[in-house]
Amino acid sequence: MKYNLEVINLTKNYQDFHLKQINIKLPKGKIIGLIGENGSGKTTTIKSILNLMTYDKGNIKIFGKDNKDLTKQEREQIGVVLDDSFFSTILNVNDINKLMNNFYHNWDEKFYYKTVKKFKIPCNKPLKEFSSGMKMKIKVLCAIAHKPKLLILDEPTNGLDPIFRYEIIELFNNFVSNKENSILMTTHITSDLEHLADEIIFIDNGHIILDVLKEKIDNEYGIVELLENKLTNIKKEDYLKCLKYKNESYILVNPKKEFQNKYPKLEIRKPTLEELMLLLVKGE
Amino acid sequence: MNTIKGLLLKDLYVFRNFKGNIIFSILMFIFLITIGSIRSDIFTIGSILFLIFFGMNSISSFSYDENADSDKYLLSLPITKKDVVLSKYLFVFLNSFISILGGIVASFIITILVRGKVNNLGDSLRICFLAFTSVSFLMCANVPCIYKWGVEKGRMQSVIIPALFIFLLGMFGSLLLLLFPQIYLNVDLLYLFKISPYICLMLNILFYVISYLISYKIFLNKSI
Fold it and tell me: Which of B5, B65, B72 sits opposite A88 (nearest CB)?
């Protein structure tokens, strides 16, 4: 089994929204970042993968098995962070430990409390007294403390300060370092994926508009900044998208080497994921 | 079994949130039953008051789950929809059962201490059992409504549906008596009362099983 997760032609139709032909193949030891605007279909995809909702067409396989046929033991191999759902906020860290101990055979209490201490999370305070960052820390901890093989994370860095986001990214990188574990994560803080994801899938309005290795983005995509009046010097077919902002134009090019050969005087730089997302959605 | 234990624990922790209120209410009830017992034997009323006041508190656990959208998270863990629904019914039942049991024990001790004895203990226990069955009926009507419409939206339906059921049952009974008046003459009410614990036991099982199956079906088809 090469992939920990396979989503094949996932389709879901709502009255006013359609998720169309979503394909994801998450190999062992890799991290895929699922990016897109709010309401683009990221959470619907995650919910379908977790079997929280039915879908109209397609197949979802986890550890090579249909996601509806997973046994409890197999589901114990999955760790989940959901942005908008967790235990009741009247529970505290100790309560959550007791509950998780009942839900998971592999629950590592020692690791849990060690990390609670490391993250400076108070043990006896109810979650309702936590900051949103603190709540997210405990959610992430609950997703990894039972030693899963696959992490499915919906906006796991939401509300976190930059220092903890760095710590979390380190944690996730360590998680996949054994070449067996994998992570699928959605985020709209695309900067988190810059040093984390191996592959980027960009969903817009229910369908994938970009599925590319991060390495390829770095090597092949480029951004050129121009004054707006200089844009006329560049042929439309030589760039993918163009976005005008104030007096400047930003153009997305691919492959950048070819573009550089044609326009040797223009300076091309590596696009950030945010710029890529913005240009692909808002660019003309 | 560990999963169910975990889910029951989760609901039990909800009660801890208002343990002060619970302890205060228990003390208040004990005080009131003690005062009431000086004038007359209120063993039955005391027990039923406990049941009504504490036995229906389990609904609040649904409310806390709904606020945190916990079901979505729970179902992403190795927990099935069946586990979630089953644990809720166990919690509702245990809560009602412990409430009536606590009420009976407290009222019994107080009545013995104040009045020296409980009059017609057997009959009083039968009435308690009938009250327990009524609460079971209400709770078993409530839970599927909560699964269907949620705690807030289902509030109205939780009242209307059991009321409508009782109304229709009453209408059916009246119609039956109107059409076959001899039935009334042949029914030995005292005998019925005597065997009421057995009837209640069967009704309780029936209510819980039917209600569980309805809730499970609703929850199974629900997109979380």
Answer: B65
pLDDT (tens digit per residue) in B51-71 = 888 888 888 899 999 999 999
The arithmetic mean of pLDDT across residues B1-24, rounded, is 89
Return the ∠ at Cα A20 (arms to A15 and A22), rounded to 5°. Answer: 140
> A91: which chain B residues are within 8 Å (Cβ-Cβ)?
10, 13
Contact criterion met (CB < 8 Å) for A82 and B73:
yes
Instruction: Decide if A136 contacts A156 (C-beta within 8 A).
Output: yes
DSSP state of A128: G
What would the pLDDT profile of A42-51 be if each residue is shown by its tens digit?
Answer: 999 999 999 9
Q: Is the pLDDT of residue A233 over 90?
A: no
Beta strands of A138-197 (E only): which ranges? 150-154, 182-186
pLDDT computed for residue A201 by the predictor: 95
Q: What is the predicted ipTM?
A: 0.89
Domain with CATH 3.40.50.300 in chain A: 3-216
Domain A3-216, CATH class in plain words: alpha beta
Task: Give ∠ CA A222-A228-A230 in degrees, rounded to 5.
Answer: 80
- At residue B176, the pLDDT reads 85
A78 contact residues in B (CB cutoff 8 A): 76
- Whether B5 and chain A come into contact, CB under 8 Å, resolves to yes
Tell whether the model's pLDDT for residue B210 goes beyond 90. yes
CB pair distance less than 8 Å for B3 and A103: yes
Q: With an 8 Å Cβ cutoff, is B222 touching chain A? A: no
